[in-house]
Amino acid sequence: MDALLDHLEEAVEQTRAHVTGALGEGRVLTASDEQITRALALAAELQRLTEAVLVEATGEVSRRSQSAARDDRLTSRMGCHDVSELVQRLARCSASTAARLQRAAKPTMARVSLAGTAMPGMLPALHETMIDGVIGLDGVLAVAGPLAEMSRRVPYEKVLAADQVIAAVARGEGPDGAPPATADLLKIHATTWATYLDQDGAEPRDERALRVRGITLGRERDGVVPITGNLMVEVAKQFESICHAIGSPRVDQDGPVMFRPSADVEPDPLDYRSDVRTPAQKRHDAFATALSVAASSQLLPTIGGAAPTLVVSVREEDLIEGRGWAHIDGEPVALAASVHAGCAGVIQRILTGGNGRIVKLGTEERVFNRRQRRAIALRDGGCVIPGCGVPAAWCEIHHVIEYAHGGPTHVDNGVLLCWYHHRHLGNHGWQIRMSNGVPEVKAPPWADREPRWRPATTSPTRLLDSIPRRT
User: Fold this and answer.
1) Cα–Cα distances in Å, from 55 out to 58, 81, 86, 313, 436?
2) What's the rounded Cα separation, in Å, for the pair 203 and 449?
3) Which residues share a beta bridge with 217?
4) Strands 111-112 and 118-119, how do they pair?
5) How far apart are the C-alpha atoms of 142 and 276, rounded to whole Å?
6) CA torsion 205→207→211→214, rounded to 10°?
7) What pLDDT was estimated at residue 7?
8) Is the CB of residue 399 less than 8 Å from the CB of residue 406?
9) What is the pLDDT along the chain (471 residues), one digit of tens a residue?
10) 151 backbone dihedrals φ, ψ, rounded to 5°
11) Which residues contact 86 (CB under 8 A, 6 or more apart)?
């Protein structure tokens, strides 16, 4: 061990000197492609070897801190509450990293027999690939998780067989002769082996999932309500499918949907309103759409003899003048939320005067009914904003002339918009009007060299009908 410590100290000093000199002088900026990729690969290999030491040392710290007598524990002698605190202080890492090191150490570290002799860990082949620098912390956890879980129900010799095959895959020596696998690919291999060998593991896992499933809504703060919880796999996958179905096919490489102007047109920064939602924000909007569709489907259980109804209260003069606040179940929300809700779903709006008197009580029947929705969907095809791509089934119906301003709930005054474009119609520069019962859209200056009103539809029927007029 002394030789390893001496080597590590020397390696740290040498590496620090070279790294400080190379990076501090900006040599990376002038390096060739080959030099950059080689540096990345070598640094990663060095990191994997370093992580092997971290995992081994963390495992031994854990073993020496298991004494029933607190004063005999290594953590106590070092003045720390537990292993996590000691690892965090020595490695200068986060609590999550310390926890990952401890999880990686359990299936790989050597065990001590009753006679006091060292024994191989539960996954010896994985351990060898780790200390050889073939895989690092990510790879160890990717493999150890599935294999350690199934080891409780599968004969140990089968676990060893899976361990050896996956270790060969990690080295690039697997049956298919593929190059060394990444951590994500190793996890796929480990999960596949666990699924194949542990035929009875699904039910216990499902029982645990049923126990820990749940969603918790926090208290409103700054206009948002935090949500935490655990979704069962099939529920999460269903939600992912909904997100994919609602998401636009026009996806930028970095994620957000971008309606970019032509390369030869210089956009006005004030007019540029691209969709720069983060993936998390897109999932929120997809969730909002799914809730809206479910509430308006008439398939949910009733509450008090009626479908789940969102009650939005707003003062009449505020609604007319477009200022002030609305309230949902006592919580203040932006007036735009009430306008959006009043146009989109199965809701009931209550207009109150300045003295609190109920001036007008709306009814659910004023929203577009199923027959109107089917007709509008046939006409529009999907969200009428060009390039959006959200299908009709996931769209809301927007009153082109707002209902609060006398707009009728009629097919000649309704167009399909996705939740996002409906909620933020006034912010992204697109304009909508009806012309003889047909929606027309006017693009912002950055999206159309000569902005003008153009009919908008993705309906295959209408597009097919338009072909003879163009030939």
Assistant:
1) 5, 20, 14, 58, 71
2) 60
3) 227
4) antiparallel
5) 33
6) 70
7) 85
8) no
9) 888 888 888 888 888 887 887 777 677 778 888 888 988 999 999 999 999 999 999 999 999 999 889 889 999 999 999 999 999 999 999 999 999 999 999 988 876 655 666 677 889 999 999 999 999 999 999 999 989 888 878 888 999 999 999 999 999 998 878 889 999 999 989 988 887 887 665 556 667 777 888 888 888 888 788 888 888 777 787 787 777 766 654 433 333 333 334 444 444 443 434 556 788 888 888 888 777 777 666 666 554 445 445 666 666 667 677 666 677 655 666 666 656 555 554 555 666 666 667 777 665 555 677 788 888 988 888 888 887 778 887 788 888 887 667 788 889 999 998 878 887 776 667 889 998 888 998 888 766 677 888 888 777 666 666 666 555
10) -65, -15
11) 61, 65, 74, 75, 78, 80
Assign residue 92 a region (left: φ > 0; alpha: ψ between -120 and 50; beta: otherwise). left
d(CA 461, CA 382): 13
Query: How far, in Å, CA of 153 to CA of 45, rounded?
Result: 35
Q: What's the per-residue H, E or C state across the chain?
A: CHHHHHHHHHHHHHHHHHHHHHHHCCHHHHCCHHHHHHHHHHHHHHHHHHHHHHHHHHHHHHHCCCCCCHHHCHHHHCCCCCHHHHHHHHHCCCHHHHHHHHHHHHHHCCEECCCCCEECCCCHHHHHHHHCCCCCHHHHHHHHHHHHHHCCCCCHHHHHHHHHHHHHHHHCCCCCCCCCCCHHHHHHHHHHHHHHHCCCCHHHHHHHHHHHCEEEECCCECCECCEEEECCHHHHHHHHHHHHHHCCCCCCCCCCCCCCCCCCCCCCCCCCCCCCCCHHHHHHHHHHHHHHHHHCCCCCCCECCECCCEEEEEEHHHHHHCCCEEEECCEEEEHHHHHHHHHHCCEEEEEECCCCCEEEECCHHHCCCHHHHHHHHHHHCECCCCCCCCEHHHCEEEECCCHHHCCCCCHHHEEEECHHHHHCCCCCCCEEEEECCEEEEECCCCCCCCCCEEECCCCHHHHHHHHHHHC
Burial class (CB in 10 A: 0-12, 13-18, 19+), 95: exposed
CA-nearest of 6, 3, 23, 11 to 50 is 11
8 A C-beta contact, residue 185 and residue 231: no
Contact between 386 and 441 under an 8 Å Cβ cutoff? The reply is: yes
Query: What span, in angstroms and rounded, lies between the C-alpha atoms of 335 and 327?
Result: 9
Q: Which of 414, 403, 288, 298 is nearest to 346 (CA)?
A: 298
